[in-house]
Amino acid sequence: LYTERERLADLLGRGEDRAEVEHHRRMVEWASRLVELARRTDANPGLELEVQTICVGEAAIVALSAEVFAEFEKKALPLSPCQPTFFVSNANGNIGYLPTAEALAEGGYEVDTAHRYFGSLRLGAQAPAIAEQTLHAALAQLVDARQPQQQTPQR
Fold first, then answer.
1. pLDDT for 48-65, tens place per residue?
2. CA torsion through residues 57, 58, 59, 60, sign
3. Minimal CA–CA distance to 69: which of 126, 131, 115?
4. CA quadruple 74, 78, 84, 89: dihedral positive or negative?
5. Which of 5, 10, 19, 123 is the most exposed place for a label (fewest CB within 10 A)?
């Protein structure tokens, strides 16, 4: 945190590029949130990932509050009871990227850096399990939506 604050102050003093200043400002904000989280005794660093499904005729929309990888969709599409099924990332919020096991092993921006811009902790090894749970939740919602609704008899 202190190192990033010093870098930011140095950049501001030199009139550096706006993108560079913005990058360091975000890093300071992220580090400040982590320090605050570490100081709290009741801190629960968990994130809430929202799964929302909407069926329109035979089609469906699955909206997630995360950025999922294309492999997630490739796995989900053949299992969906609705055709076509469209996936929307970053709906009703954004907790960041939800990487696959392969992406975690490979590393890169989505796995190693992006979480800082979303103000969250790095998901790490639990990300594939979270993606799998999310997939099952979305598919369960679609199956439920496809079930005929019981009509209440009118008198």
1. 788 999 999 999 999 998
2. positive
3. 131
4. negative
5. 19
Residue 98 φ/ψ, nearest 5 degrees:
-115, 90
Q: What φ, ψ does residue 18 adopt, rounded to 5°?
A: -60, -40
DSSP code per residue over 64-104: ESSEE-HHHHHHHGGG-SSSSEEEESSTT----EE--HHHH
CA distances from 16 to 6, 21, 23, 30, 141 (A): 14, 7, 11, 21, 49
Q: Give the C-alpha separation, 126 to 18, whole Å.
A: 35
Tokens 């089609």 correspond to what residue? 59
Which tokens in the block code for residue 100? 């696959």
pTM, to two decimals: 0.67
Q: Which residue, 84, 64, 83, is CA-closest to 72?
A: 64
To which H or E segment does residue 59 belong?
strand 59-64
In this predicted structure, the answer to whether residue 129 has a pLDDT above a threshold of 60 is: yes
Residue 129's contacts (CB-CB under 8 Å, 6 or more residues apart) are none
